[in-house]
Amino acid sequence: MAVHGHPHPHARNRFSFRLKSRADTTARAASAERAVASSQTLGRTLAGLRFVTAFTFLWAFFDKTFGWGYATHSGKGWIDGGSPTKGFLSGVAAGPMESTFHDWAGDTWADWLFMLGLFGIGLALAGGVALRLAAVAGTALMTLMWIAEWPPARHLSDGSLSASANPLVDYHVVYAAVLILLAVFGAGRTWGLGRLWERLPFVGDRSWLR
Prior knowledge:
By secondary structure, the protein is mostly helical.
């Protein structure tokens, strides 16, 4: 009588387990690869945003310093004796700090603080270092400029329309949000000196310097 062999049930279970294990391993590897690719894409996207924002601050600094003929007329730059703050602050025509800004307009301390702020924030963003400090300084600067323009006002102090496009969120708020976003995600680690900066002894124990 012929005896037909049948695979042992335990052997089938072990074979099925190995197949499932291999499938799970492949799926985890694919998921890990997607996560790495997504992280790299996010890092590069934020690095690009960081460079664009850095260029915005550095352009403002150099245009106001040398009078390149854009926001600052040729021959009216800071290096020529012009004041980077006088025109803007003396033109404030609304808001709770209108008279205060008029008093500050053209003061040496205001010029230096404003220009050092523009340059320092732009340099930090370009290099990808001290992004938390840059975010704090930039947010403070943007807040002051927002108050100077005072978007909530429908009318200026002389009664004319303010032409405000949005009473709360304007480009100053957007810039501040971008600076905070870059700092939170450590955008200086991609295409920047962020990782090297974080390894410096005086930075490692002081998270606020990162």
